[in-house]
Design brief:
Jelly Rolls, 365 residues, globular, single chain, seven-stranded antiparallel sheet
Length: 365
Amino acid sequence: MHLSSISARALSAAALALVVSCAKEPVAPDAAALVSANPAIALARAPLAATSTAAKLASFESFTPGAINGQFDWQSMGGVGNAPPPGTCAVYDHEISNASALIAGIDATEFLGARSLRLSNAVTSGCYGDQTFSYRTANVAGESSARWGTAEFALPGARLDNHFEAEWTVMSVVPFAQQPGLEVVASPARGDDQRMGWLQVADLADGLAISVARWVDAGSLSGATIAPTIIASGLDRRAPHVIKLTMDFVDGPDNDVVRVWVDGTLRNAGPSWERYYALKGIAPPAVNRLMFRTGSDALRGLPGTAAPATRGLGLAFDNLRQSTFAVPSSTDACRNDGWRVARARDGRVFENQGDCIQWVLHASR
């Protein structure tokens, strides 16, 4: 079952062997200092682009309930139902479940179907690679110097695009009450501890809240800090909400653009986490999936405390779609049939070379 505005996508049939890394970054907060913003409840959205990507996941209806890891290219080494391998930091409250049946007083089947990805932060850790990762897109996205990582991070034959986007539905499993301390973070990632952004869903007194966090530095990694900001709050727990995140990667320092929509309204635009990698003296990673993390960074003086009362409840995620494609950054990229493989930033297919060139000229203004 899906939201009426979200088309079904074919499921990827390949479940590939994955390697887990539990490395910890020097600083990686997973809770935000919360401020108020206006609510948005409408479910209108900007459509994801149609691409040739084989793996399109619209729901979890074909998944087996329980352990996520290995199903349709999803990775969750620390999720419920796994026999955690050496190096796994915790067993997290992450699973495929009939979340709609858990939601009392509301028929959520229309939005969530019989199966969803259910996550809570009843258990947290300072680790990354054993958390839950979505399926990989056919290609990866990043700057031309981006690190793809070793073979397990990219599908065979992947090319490098400069645009990544993902869209998903989120709904509280407890629609008529707050789940104090509930927070789950989604980050564009590649399957280990390398990520390029931070978007959090938290349950506050007045409803669900969406936050983003970006790096602010004082010229060195030791002086860098995270600046978290709520971009939408007061979101009705009784309704599903649609989050869309897009990333445009641009060669050069501090010029990537990340945009976040909540229920069809553009709520924020700002930089990626490329500044963090610049401060570390390494090229940023490419991304091809989302990391869903319930993390704690308390040892670093940052929030992220576990909320044990959320076990078996938390948030239901569904209707996830991901895509990468190439956005032309110059008129030369439109020539020599380049327009045939390029897309406008909103995913529109160009009609011809002139259409592509005109779009680039307009976008540059």
